[in-house]
Protein backbone atom coordinates (compact mmCIF):
# COMPACT_ATOMS: atom_id res chain seq x y z
CA UNK A 1 0.00 0.00 0.00
CA UNK A 2 2.97 2.32 -0.14
CA UNK A 3 2.70 3.19 -3.84
CA UNK A 4 -0.49 4.01 -5.69
CA UNK A 5 0.73 2.34 -8.87
CA UNK A 6 3.77 1.28 -10.82
CA UNK A 7 5.36 3.79 -13.16
CA UNK A 8 3.88 6.79 -11.40
CA UNK A 9 7.17 8.71 -11.25
CA UNK A 10 7.67 8.48 -14.99
CA UNK A 11 4.23 9.99 -15.55
CA UNK A 12 4.52 12.87 -13.11
CA UNK A 13 5.27 15.49 -15.75
CA UNK A 14 2.53 14.24 -18.05
CA UNK A 15 -0.40 15.05 -15.82
CA UNK A 16 -1.49 17.70 -13.35
CA UNK A 17 2.02 18.40 -12.14
CA UNK A 18 3.42 18.72 -15.65
CA UNK A 19 6.22 21.15 -16.34
CA UNK A 20 8.69 20.06 -13.66
CA UNK A 21 12.38 20.65 -14.23
CA UNK A 22 14.22 17.75 -15.85
CA UNK A 23 17.31 18.01 -13.60
CA UNK A 24 19.42 18.84 -16.68
CA UNK A 25 19.72 22.60 -16.41
CA UNK A 26 21.61 23.94 -13.42
CA UNK A 27 20.54 27.48 -14.32
CA UNK A 28 16.99 26.64 -13.35
CA UNK A 29 17.89 25.80 -9.79
CA UNK A 30 20.54 28.36 -8.88
CA UNK A 31 17.87 31.08 -8.93
CA UNK A 32 14.80 31.44 -6.67
CA UNK A 33 12.66 29.82 -9.40
CA UNK A 34 11.92 26.69 -7.34
CA UNK A 35 10.57 26.98 -3.81
CA UNK A 36 10.09 24.49 -1.00
CA UNK A 37 7.41 25.24 1.62
CA UNK A 38 6.60 23.47 4.89
CA UNK A 39 3.68 23.58 7.30
CA UNK A 40 3.18 21.37 10.34
CA UNK A 41 0.18 20.48 12.42
CA UNK A 42 -1.53 17.45 13.86
CA UNK A 43 -3.40 14.41 12.58
CA UNK A 44 -6.16 13.33 14.94
CA UNK A 45 -6.86 9.74 13.91
CA UNK A 46 -8.52 8.74 17.16
CA UNK A 47 -10.74 6.24 15.33
CA UNK A 48 -7.74 4.58 13.64
CA UNK A 49 -9.30 5.05 10.21
CA UNK A 50 -5.98 5.92 8.57
CA UNK A 51 -4.23 3.13 10.40
CA UNK A 52 -2.16 5.51 12.52
CA UNK A 53 -4.30 5.98 15.63
CA UNK A 54 -4.20 8.74 18.19
CA UNK A 55 -2.66 12.16 17.59
CA UNK A 56 0.50 12.44 15.49
CA UNK A 57 2.51 14.96 13.51
CA UNK A 58 1.08 16.24 10.23
CA UNK A 59 3.49 17.53 7.58
CA UNK A 60 2.35 19.49 4.53
CA UNK A 61 4.78 20.57 1.81
CA UNK A 62 4.87 22.17 -1.60
CA UNK A 63 7.92 22.03 -3.88
CA UNK A 64 7.08 23.93 -7.06
CA UNK A 65 8.42 25.96 -9.93
CA UNK A 66 7.09 29.31 -11.09
CA UNK A 67 4.26 27.59 -13.00
CA UNK A 68 3.02 26.03 -9.80
CA UNK A 69 4.05 22.54 -10.90
CA UNK A 70 6.43 20.08 -9.27
CA UNK A 71 9.93 21.56 -9.20
CA UNK A 72 11.74 18.42 -10.36
CA UNK A 73 11.14 14.97 -11.80
CA UNK A 74 13.78 13.70 -9.36
CA UNK A 75 13.54 15.97 -6.30
CA UNK A 76 15.92 14.00 -4.09
CA UNK A 77 15.10 12.11 -0.90
CA UNK A 78 14.14 14.44 1.89
CA UNK A 79 15.01 14.70 5.55
CA UNK A 80 12.62 15.88 8.23
CA UNK A 81 13.91 16.99 11.62
CA UNK A 82 12.10 18.28 14.67
CA UNK A 83 12.50 19.04 18.37
CA UNK A 84 13.40 15.43 19.12
CA UNK A 85 15.82 14.96 16.20
CA UNK A 86 15.48 13.15 12.87
CA UNK A 87 11.95 12.02 11.99
CA UNK A 88 12.49 11.03 8.36
CA UNK A 89 15.99 10.23 7.11
CA UNK A 90 16.80 10.28 3.36
CA UNK A 91 16.00 6.82 2.03
CA UNK A 92 16.75 6.21 -1.69
CA UNK A 93 15.03 2.82 -1.49
CA UNK A 94 11.67 4.44 -0.73
CA UNK A 95 10.15 6.41 -3.64
CA UNK A 96 7.60 7.84 -1.20
CA UNK A 97 10.31 9.86 0.54
CA UNK A 98 10.40 12.56 -2.16
CA UNK A 99 8.69 15.94 -2.20
CA UNK A 100 6.74 16.87 -5.30
CA UNK A 101 4.19 19.60 -5.98
CA UNK A 102 2.03 18.77 -2.95
CA UNK A 103 3.57 16.43 -0.43
CA UNK A 104 4.85 13.14 -1.76
CA UNK A 105 3.56 10.97 -4.61
CA UNK A 106 -0.19 10.42 -4.94
CA UNK A 107 -1.12 7.43 -2.83
CA UNK A 108 2.17 7.30 -0.92
CA UNK A 109 1.77 6.79 2.79
CA UNK A 110 5.10 7.96 4.15
CA UNK A 111 7.18 5.05 5.46
CA UNK A 112 4.33 2.54 5.30
CA UNK A 113 2.17 4.41 7.79
CA UNK A 114 -1.53 4.92 7.36
CA UNK A 115 -4.04 4.41 4.59
CA UNK A 116 -3.07 5.13 0.97
CA UNK A 117 -5.55 7.77 -0.15
CA UNK A 118 -5.84 10.08 -3.14
CA UNK A 119 -8.10 12.89 -4.31
CA UNK A 120 -10.62 11.97 -6.99
CA UNK A 121 -13.72 13.61 -8.56
CA UNK A 122 -15.96 15.39 -8.00
CA UNK A 123 -13.84 17.32 -5.46
CA UNK A 124 -10.78 16.92 -7.69
CA UNK A 125 -11.68 17.76 -11.28
CA UNK A 126 -10.56 16.98 -13.96
CA UNK A 127 -9.74 13.38 -13.08
CA UNK A 128 -6.07 12.45 -12.86
CA UNK A 129 -4.78 10.13 -15.56
CA UNK A 130 -2.75 8.28 -12.92
CA UNK A 131 -5.70 7.54 -10.69
CA UNK A 132 -5.74 10.43 -8.26
CA UNK A 133 -4.09 13.50 -6.78
CA UNK A 134 -1.89 13.82 -3.70
CA UNK A 135 -3.74 15.18 -0.68
CA UNK A 136 -0.59 16.94 0.46
CA UNK A 137 -0.34 15.76 4.04
CA UNK A 138 2.44 13.34 4.98
CA UNK A 139 1.58 10.80 7.64
CA UNK A 140 4.70 10.56 9.78
CA UNK A 141 3.35 8.70 12.79
CA UNK A 142 5.72 10.81 14.89
CA UNK A 143 4.57 12.42 18.14
CA UNK A 144 3.17 15.92 17.71
CA UNK A 145 5.87 17.61 19.77
CA UNK A 146 5.72 21.40 19.93
CA UNK A 147 8.71 23.19 18.44
CA UNK A 148 10.61 23.85 15.22
CA UNK A 149 10.66 21.48 12.23
CA UNK A 150 12.76 21.53 9.06
CA UNK A 151 12.30 19.68 5.77
CA UNK A 152 15.31 19.57 3.47
CA UNK A 153 16.33 17.86 0.26
CA UNK A 154 19.32 17.80 -2.04
CA UNK A 155 18.66 17.86 -5.78
CA UNK A 156 21.38 16.64 -8.13
CA UNK A 157 21.58 18.35 -11.52
CA UNK A 158 24.42 17.69 -13.95
CA UNK A 159 26.45 16.23 -11.10
CA UNK A 160 26.02 19.31 -8.91
CA UNK A 161 24.04 19.27 -5.67
CA UNK A 162 21.67 22.08 -4.75
CA UNK A 163 20.11 22.21 -1.29
CA UNK A 164 16.56 23.26 -0.44
CA UNK A 165 15.03 23.60 3.01
CA UNK A 166 11.99 25.07 4.74
CA UNK A 167 11.03 25.38 8.39
CA UNK A 168 7.84 25.68 10.42
CA UNK A 169 6.83 25.70 14.08
CA UNK A 170 4.25 23.46 15.73
CA UNK A 171 2.11 24.69 18.60
CA UNK A 172 0.01 22.58 20.96
CA UNK A 173 -3.46 22.67 19.43
CA UNK A 174 -5.29 19.54 18.27
CA UNK A 175 -8.54 19.35 16.32
CA UNK A 176 -11.63 17.81 17.85
CA UNK A 177 -12.60 14.32 16.79
CA UNK A 178 -14.20 14.46 13.34
CA UNK A 179 -17.93 13.83 13.40
CA UNK A 180 -18.23 11.51 10.42
CA UNK A 181 -21.02 10.47 8.09
CA UNK A 182 -24.30 9.64 9.82
CA UNK A 183 -26.53 8.95 6.82
CA UNK A 184 -26.62 8.51 3.05
CA UNK A 185 -29.44 8.70 0.52
CA UNK A 186 -28.56 7.14 -2.83
CA UNK A 187 -29.62 8.69 -6.13
CA UNK A 188 -29.46 5.17 -7.63
CA UNK A 189 -26.99 6.25 -10.35
CA UNK A 190 -23.70 6.26 -8.45
CA UNK A 191 -24.20 9.29 -6.25
CA UNK A 192 -26.28 10.59 -3.39
CA UNK A 193 -26.43 12.94 -0.41
CA UNK A 194 -24.29 12.47 2.68
CA UNK A 195 -25.30 13.73 6.10
CA UNK A 196 -22.45 14.21 8.53
CA UNK A 197 -21.86 15.58 11.99
CA UNK A 198 -20.53 19.11 12.29
CA UNK A 199 -18.04 19.43 15.16
CA UNK A 200 -17.93 23.23 14.99
CA UNK A 201 -20.25 23.52 17.99
CA UNK A 202 -18.45 20.82 19.90
CA UNK A 203 -14.85 21.96 19.60
CA UNK A 204 -12.52 20.67 22.26
CA UNK A 205 -10.00 22.71 24.14
CA UNK A 206 -7.04 20.37 24.20
CA UNK A 207 -3.61 20.82 25.72
CA UNK A 208 -4.87 23.93 27.51
CA UNK A 209 -4.72 26.10 24.42
CA UNK A 210 -7.17 27.56 21.93
CA UNK A 211 -9.80 26.03 19.73
CA UNK A 212 -9.22 24.85 16.16
CA UNK A 213 -12.17 25.59 13.87
CA UNK A 214 -12.98 23.43 10.86
CA UNK A 215 -12.63 25.29 7.57
CA UNK A 216 -13.65 22.42 5.30
CA UNK A 217 -14.68 18.78 5.16
CA UNK A 218 -13.58 16.18 2.62
CA UNK A 219 -15.82 13.13 2.35
CA UNK A 220 -14.07 10.12 0.84
CA UNK A 221 -15.78 7.00 -0.50
CA UNK A 222 -13.90 3.74 -0.91
CA UNK A 223 -15.02 0.47 -2.42
CA UNK A 224 -13.62 -2.22 -0.17
CA UNK A 225 -15.05 -4.92 -2.44
CA UNK A 226 -12.64 -4.33 -5.34
CA UNK A 227 -9.54 -5.50 -3.49
CA UNK A 228 -8.10 -5.99 -0.05
CA UNK A 229 -6.67 -2.48 -0.39
CA UNK A 230 -9.66 -0.09 -0.45
CA UNK A 231 -9.81 2.06 -3.57
CA UNK A 232 -10.98 5.66 -3.30
CA UNK A 233 -13.77 6.02 -5.87
CA UNK A 234 -15.27 9.41 -5.02
CA UNK A 235 -14.53 12.53 -2.97
CA UNK A 236 -16.73 15.54 -2.27
CA UNK A 237 -15.80 18.72 -0.41
CA UNK A 238 -18.00 20.80 1.86
CA UNK A 239 -17.20 24.10 3.61
CA UNK A 240 -16.99 24.44 7.37
CA UNK A 241 -20.44 24.79 8.84
CA UNK A 242 -22.03 22.29 6.45
CA UNK A 243 -23.92 19.17 7.48
CA UNK A 244 -24.63 17.73 4.03
CA UNK A 245 -22.78 17.15 0.77
CA UNK A 246 -23.96 15.68 -2.53
CA UNK A 247 -22.34 13.66 -5.30
CA UNK A 248 -24.33 13.55 -8.53
CA UNK A 249 -24.27 10.07 -10.02
CA UNK A 250 -23.59 9.68 -13.73
CA UNK A 251 -24.24 5.96 -14.08
CA UNK A 252 -27.10 4.29 -15.92
CA UNK A 253 -28.77 3.13 -12.74
CA UNK A 254 -28.14 0.41 -10.21
CA UNK A 255 -27.72 -2.50 -10.16
CA UNK A 256 -26.38 -2.14 -13.72
CA UNK A 257 -24.01 0.80 -13.31
CA UNK A 258 -23.05 3.17 -10.50
CA UNK A 259 -20.61 6.00 -11.29
CA UNK A 260 -18.54 7.21 -9.48
CA UNK A 261 -19.82 5.18 -6.52
CA UNK A 262 -20.15 1.52 -7.55
CA UNK A 263 -23.45 -0.21 -6.94
CA UNK A 264 -23.53 -2.16 -3.71
CA UNK A 265 -21.68 -1.75 -0.44
CA UNK A 266 -19.08 0.99 0.07
CA UNK A 267 -17.37 2.75 2.94
CA UNK A 268 -17.09 6.48 3.64
CA UNK A 269 -15.33 8.72 6.12
CA UNK A 270 -14.68 12.42 6.67
CA UNK A 271 -11.45 14.41 6.93
CA UNK A 272 -11.85 17.73 8.75
CA UNK A 273 -9.22 20.38 7.99
CA UNK A 274 -8.47 23.82 9.41
CA UNK A 275 -6.53 24.89 6.28
CA UNK A 276 -7.21 24.77 2.50
CA UNK A 277 -6.60 21.04 2.15
CA UNK A 278 -8.17 20.72 -1.31
CA UNK A 279 -7.48 24.22 -2.59
CA UNK A 280 -3.71 24.10 -1.91
CA UNK A 281 -3.12 21.12 -4.15
CA UNK A 282 -3.57 20.09 -7.77
CA UNK A 283 -5.63 20.47 -9.82
CA UNK A 284 -7.10 23.46 -7.94
CA UNK A 285 -3.88 25.32 -7.12
CA UNK A 286 -1.52 26.78 -9.70
CA UNK A 287 0.31 28.94 -7.17
CA UNK A 288 3.98 28.37 -6.47
CA UNK A 289 3.50 29.29 -2.82
CA UNK A 290 -0.08 28.65 -1.67
CA UNK A 291 -0.91 29.43 1.95
CA UNK A 292 -0.51 26.15 3.79
CA UNK A 293 -1.45 27.23 7.30
CA UNK A 294 -4.94 27.88 8.55
CA UNK A 295 -5.94 30.86 10.71
CA UNK A 296 -4.33 29.23 13.76
CA UNK A 297 -0.92 29.10 12.08
CA UNK A 298 -0.89 25.35 11.56
CA UNK A 299 -2.18 22.66 9.19
CA UNK A 300 -4.34 20.23 11.13
CA UNK A 301 -6.71 17.44 10.18
CA UNK A 302 -9.03 15.09 12.03
CA UNK A 303 -10.35 11.83 10.58
CA UNK A 304 -13.72 10.30 11.44
CA UNK A 305 -14.79 6.72 11.89
CA UNK A 306 -15.88 4.82 8.80
CA UNK A 307 -19.54 4.51 7.87
CA UNK A 308 -21.03 1.87 5.54
CA UNK A 309 -23.21 3.09 2.69
CA UNK A 310 -25.15 1.25 0.02
CA UNK A 311 -25.46 2.51 -3.57
CA UNK A 312 -28.65 0.90 -4.81
Describe this structure in words.
By secondary structure, the chain is mostly beta strands. It has no helices and 15 strands. Strands 1, 2, 5, 10, 11, 13, 14 and 15 form an 8-stranded mixed β-sheet that branches. Strand 6 and strand 7 form a beta hairpin. The chain starts with 34 loop residues before the first strand and ends with a strand.
As a percent range, the share of helical residues equals under 10%
Radius of gyration: 19 Å
Share in β-strands: 25-35%
> Helices and strands: which structural class?
mainly beta
User: If helices are DSSP runs of H or I spanning 4 or more residues, what is the number of helices?
Assistant: 0
Given as residue ranges, the uncertain stretches (5+ residues, pLDDT < 50) are 1-19, 25-31, 201-210
* Rounded mean pLDDT score: 85
Sketch the major β-sheet. Answer: 8 strands, mixed
What's the helix-strand series?
EEEEEEEEEEEEEEE
How many beta-strand runs? Answer: 15
Categorize the overall geometry. Answer: globular
End-to-end separation = 29 Å
Q: Could you provide a short overview of the structure?
A:
The chain is an all-beta fold. The protein contains no helices and 15 strands. Helix content is 0%, strand content 34%.
Please specify the SSE layout and strand pairing.
Layout lengths: L34 E11 L8 E11 L14 E4 L2 E4 L48 E3 L7 E11 L2 E11 L10 E6 L5 E5 L19 E8 L7 E9 L4 E4 L16 E10 L27 E3 L3 E5 L1
Considering the chains and any ligands shown, give keywords for the structure.
eight-stranded mixed beta sheet, disordered N terminus, 312 residues, globular, mainly beta, single chain
